[in-house]
């Protein structure tokens, strides 16, 4: 019994080290616990687009359109990746994300938070689905290349379903 318990504890630590220590994808709460709160990250990464163009990386209409197009693809690609890995939500799931991207287009941090379900306010994403999603999203973010680069790091954000 002790050997089984020790093995389980060791597996837990190994899995959590790999999932959270090296992962680029985290919930807002996990990122904050690791010293990477969105307030801290927002100081390092400018907003991709902003109503005040002085606060934005993509300032002109043409550059903003390129960013929007690339961001739309970025929001669709994880869905394809999840489907390819046989991941299905239990029901439509709302999420807010902020994606911190290096100047060369690599994802540095993909921070997200599950939002309440409007149709069923009592619905909660199961812990198993949360863990599976986090693992797959981390794999997705590891090698993703945003199709638009900039002179400085930037961060788009939005709610998604």
TrEMBL record:
Domain of life from the UniProt record: Bacteria
Name this polypeptide is given: Uncharacterized protein
């Amino acid at each position: 019994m002790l050997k089984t318990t020790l093995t389980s504890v060791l597996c837990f630590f190994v899995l959590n080290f790999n999932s959270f220590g090296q992962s680029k994808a985290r919930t807002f709460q996990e990122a904050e616990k690791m010293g990477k709160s969105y307030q801290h990250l927002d100081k390092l990464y400018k907003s991709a687009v902003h109503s005040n163009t002085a606060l934005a990386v993509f300032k002109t209409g043409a550059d903003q359109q390129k960013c929007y197009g690339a961001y739309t693809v970025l929001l669709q690609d994880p869905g394809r990746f999840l489907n390819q890995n046989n991941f299905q939500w239990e029901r439509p799931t709302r999420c807010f994300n902020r994606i911190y991207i290096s100047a060369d287009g690599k994802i540095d941090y993909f921070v997200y938070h599950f939002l309440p379900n409007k149709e069923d306010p009592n619905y909660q994403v199961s812990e198993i689905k949360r863990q599976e999603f986090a693992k797959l999203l981390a794999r997705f973010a590891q090698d993703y290349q945003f199709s638009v680069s900039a002179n400085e790091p930037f961060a788009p954000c939005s709610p998604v379903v």
